[in-house]
Amino acid sequence: MSEKNNKKGRFGIYGGQYIPETLMNAVLELEEAYGHYKNDADFRRELTALLNDYAGRPSELYFAAKMSEKLGGARIYLKREDMNHTGSHKINNVLGQALLAKKMGKTRLIAETGAGQHGVATATAAALMDMECVIFMGREDTKRQALNVYRMKLLGAKVVPVDSGTATLKDAVSEAMREWTSRISDTHYCLGSVMGPHPFPTIVRDFQSVISREAREQILSKEGRLPDAVIACVGGGSNAIGSFYNFINDKDVRLIGCEAAGRGVDTFETAATVNTGRTGIFHGMKSYFCQDEFGQIAPVYSISAGLDYPGVGPEHAYLHDIGRAEYVPVTDDEAVDAFEYISRTEGIIPAIESAHALAYAIKEAPNAAGKIFIVTLSGRGDKDCAAIARYRGEDIYE
Amino acid sequence: MSDGIKKAFEGGKAFIAFITCGDPDTETTLGAVCAAAENGADIIELGIPFSDPTAEGPVIQGANVRALAGGITTDKVFELVGEIRKRVSIPLVFMTYSNVVFSYGPERFMSLCREKGIDGIILPDLPFEEKDEFMPVCRKYGVALISLIAPTSAGRIGMIAREAEGFLYIVSSLGVTGVRGEIDTDIASMVSVVRENTSVPCAIGFGISTCEQARKMSGYADGVIVGSAIIKLLEKYGKDAPAHIGRFVREMKDAVSAPASEHASEP
Question: Does A178 touch chain B (CB under 8 A)?
């Protein structure tokens, strides 16, 4: 369904290539290379080998028995992307793009990062494939996620703190785009989410769709039927689109994206783009954006550095408009409660991003007896422990 | 459409001055535009600030921050243009980002451009492939949608030039706007492809800050665009910048009007 609307990189009216002329040949070159390699047997074999042998795929679809029993309703399965090498779903996309960049003859990877998970994954792939690596990260985020900054450096990457704008994820994307315009010939911009100009939303979705390809088979094998709902957190939306993709044609499976509402959708301190934004053009794409009446991009807020972005991928905007997927807001408070609940109940510390999806599942499960939920646990939460401790008024050293 | 722009290139090499609206306030912008026009600028490029100007270097980013902090909005920019038009008759073109136009409503935006006397618009995040987003409504209101050509436009220059309107903005070098020590792009060959495909004039911008650079670049094309060097004067002198901008524009205009010393390839 999404595919046939994907002419010229469009999902309905969304998507496109709203970028400086300087970058046009670079994205056209990428589009052509991807068109070739995605059907290339050797490329696919190499990528599958990397995903399985290096990143540890397939990831488990774990039945959260205690949580399901306590909540007394839905049977809840967790898609364990937190078990991947580097600790999140980001590695799925990064290995694909790094391999593609290598085939294209690029020797240098640049990337933006919010929570640091994509930066760590990119630095990891660069180390593995002998490529130079530069990561752009908002100054604010380098403070919130100091441990990840050190990880990236340890992996041989250069981390550039970004001071412009709100010094968070959107500014890191802007700075990475600026860097790309100054150095195209040897550099691939390894975009971390299903956003930006075509072909990125398609490439990243394809690389992340391994999540739902596995999950669909796993649930059929475990339960003998499809789930009633697939639930994932949405910032730019890469783990969500990866989780949804192979269920899109299964009309009875509800697809639920959980947005970061921050302090609430009725406050200015929110990052719930679909719930509070409107259509606009930014960072290479037409999609939903949090913005003021004159189209100035709004400063957004979430406790989660990875969801703290004022836009959403164009395919999500489309899935929302046609009513195929639902996008619900989850506040900081709800996410932190879920973070603690699942740590205690299942012995799994989730990324604060993933805790947004868990919070919604926890809320809905009691009223969903007989239903099956798949919740994507997009990453592990070690990186968040210090920040959550501070949120609860406890000051710890990392 | 864009007759004014065409005429601006008829009296020799054109000097195009970029000024961000509302940096630090609209009164200063009005003064700066008048000073530039009185001192020989042939076209004024008016920047409408955007929160996240992805094609700009630190200098123009700073201007955007100052202007937005000063409370500039698209409505106020149009009011300012009304004031400018009482005193300045040379062509005015907007430089902004797609979301500013999209959010305002392209129809409402372009109709106000015609009403207030804006001749053209430059949108650095609207490449050839996406220009249908605004082209029909630009045509409807006679606002030239000005295209850009970059050093990385190999294989695309002819296509872009054939559909060019107003003037062609030739990006001198890779990267974002800002002052550069040297410009080493083979601009002569870019311009020669442009010439084969269109009679629309072309102007070179990005990185030009000195008279020497302006003189050299004007040898390749029909005009030069200077932005960051003017914004630096605003950054330094604030409300007192207009007089300094006037002097700077005079020097630059004289430089582009003088016969180019070593690159006099144009008649």
Answer: yes
Q: What is the DSSP code (8-state) at residue B174? A: S
**Closest chain B residue by Cα to residue A20:** B125
CA atoms within 13 A on the CB side of A393: 0
Substitution target from A296, A297, A309 for chain B, most B beta carbons within 10 A: A296
Query: Chain B: nearest CA to A164, how far in angstroms?
Result: 8
| Contacts with B79 (C-beta within 8 Å, 6 or more apart), sequence order | B26
**A308 closest CA partner among A179, A205, A166:** A166
Sign (positive or negative) of CA dihedral A135, A141, A145, A147: positive
pLDDT value of position B265: 44
Cα–Cα dist A301/A340, whole Å = 21
Sign of CA dihedral A15, A19, A21, A26: negative
A193 is catalytic: no
What domains are defined for chain B? 3-256 (3.20.20.70)
CB contact under 8 A, A21 and B104: no
* DSSP secondary structure of A89-143: THHHHHHHHHHHHHHTT--EEEEEESSSHHHHHHHHHHHHTT-EEEEEEEHHHHH
Distance CA A326, CA A324 (A): 7
**Is B176 at the interface with chain A, CB within 8 A?**
yes
The whole-angstrom separation of Cα B226 and Cα B230 is 7
Q: Summarize pLDDT for B224-249 with one digit per residue, the tens.
A: 999 999 999 999 999 999 999 999 99
My answer on whether omega of the bond before A20 falls inside 30° of 0, hence cis, is no
Range 83-112 of B in CB contact (< 8 A) with A: 97-104
Give the pTM: 0.95
Q: Is there a contact between A362 and A76 (Cβ–Cβ < 8 Å)?
A: no
- Residue whose C-alpha is closest to residue A36's, from A192, A199, A201: A199
pLDDT in tens, A200-245: 999 999 999 999 999 999 999 999 999 999 999 999 999 999 999 9
Euclidean distance between the first and the last CA atom of chain A, given in angstroms as a whole number: 46
DSSP string spanning A44-58?
HHHHHHIIIIIS-PS
Partners of residue A135 on adjacent β-strands? A111, A159
Q: How crowded is residue B142: how many other Cβ atoms within 10 Å of its Cβ? A: 15
Those residues with Cβ within 8 angstroms of residue B101's Cβ, 6 or more apart along the chain or in another chain: A295, B109, B110, B121, B123, B134
Exactly one of A2, A68, A79, A90 is catalytic; name it. Answer: A90
A chain contacts of residue B126, beta-carbon cutoff 8 Å:
18
Using CA coordinates, name the residue in chain B closest to A163.
B58
The H or E element containing residue B252 is helix B241-257
Query: What amino acid occupies position A135?
Result: I
CA distance B27 to B82: 13
> Collapsing DSSP states into helix, strand and coil, what is residue A309?
coil
In this structure, what DSSP letter does residue A8 have?
G
Kindly report the nearest CA distance between residue B177 and chain A, in angstroms.
10
